[in-house]
Specification:
Blueprint (H helix, E strand, L loop, with lengths): L7 H9 L8 H21 L9 E5 L5 E3 H15 L4 E6 L6 E2 L9 E9 L10 E9 L10 H4 L8 E7 L3 E6 L4 E7 L4 E6 L10 E3 L10 H13 L8 E2 L5 H11 L2 E4 L10 E2 H14 L3 E3 L16 E2 L1 E4 L1 H11 L6
Parallel strand pairs: 3-5, 11-12, 11-13
Antiparallel strand pairs: 1-2, 3-4, 5-6, 6-7, 7-8, 8-9, 9-10, 13-17, 14-16, 15-17
Helix pairs in contact: 1-2, 2-3, 5-8
Amino acid sequence: MNSFVMTLNRHILEQERLYPQATGAFTNLLIDIALAAKAISHEVNKAGLLDIFGAVGTQNVFGESQQKLDVMANDAMIKALNFSGTLCTMASEENEDLIPIAEEFPKGKYICCFDPLDGSSNIDVNVSIGTIFSIFRRVTHEDQPVSLQDVLQPGYSQVCAGYVIYGSSTMLVYTTGAGVYGFTLDPDYGSFILSHPKIKIPSKGKIYSVNEGNYYKWDEGVRNYVNWAKQYGGPDGAPMTGRYIGSLVADFHRNLLKGGVFLYPADSKNKNGKLRLMYEANPLAFIVEQAGGKASNGTQRILDIQPQELHQRTPLIIGSKEDVEIAEQFVQGKRTE
């Protein structure tokens, strides 16, 4: 075994040295996120041994039943990020309003938006779930109170985005706009170790991921695309392979590494889509573009959308660049077969 390993902490520090003006605050923030991820991973991995399955009897801001692990993960993220002095506020998919930094702790210039535990409906059946995060710099002066203006920035303003997937191994993937890197948690080291340097998504994939149970709720363009993908969408005109886990992080992670497209389009029930722009679509769009892919709502680049609400929803088509562009053609009615 190679005696040298590149840990996440070391990788972040080496990246920081490329910027002489760096203060170390951003490095500390990423290290705090990794700490929260370790805590969540620990609880997820022993979930079958403890009474942390199931719902807690409360609902989040969307009226969805909160799972016990949801609440634990949200608390872990808030506690890990609260005291370091790197953030001026936080936003979580589980909280209706901005999460203020406690008065007794120093404030920083960054904002972190996160989905503490994506894929909650899969918790009880031991399917991979994950944490998604997005980091912005505040835009108002530090002497002013933090406001929604600081948070509701378009995705292209992100300075970092990433996710953690809790599966057969725990893996953290992130980008700061200079490529995508993946780190696997090594239980022996107790550290995230660089395992996937400079991830690139294939320009064309063989996999399409979509909940076909919603088929008759979709617009005609989406149905036409899925019909085409099942017949001719793969390389050399072969059928594409359908793979849908129902956990966004897991579906996205597979397609990022192997190529393919994930779709969660608008439908007759969810006119604006179902996924959250700030907590899911924006960070994954930043990652996939840095890996050479593309993310769209069907008519517009995800990273160009100007958010109007903290919990705004959006349709999402994300993955290999060529696959997303073909899907857009169908959605826009420019192509029918």
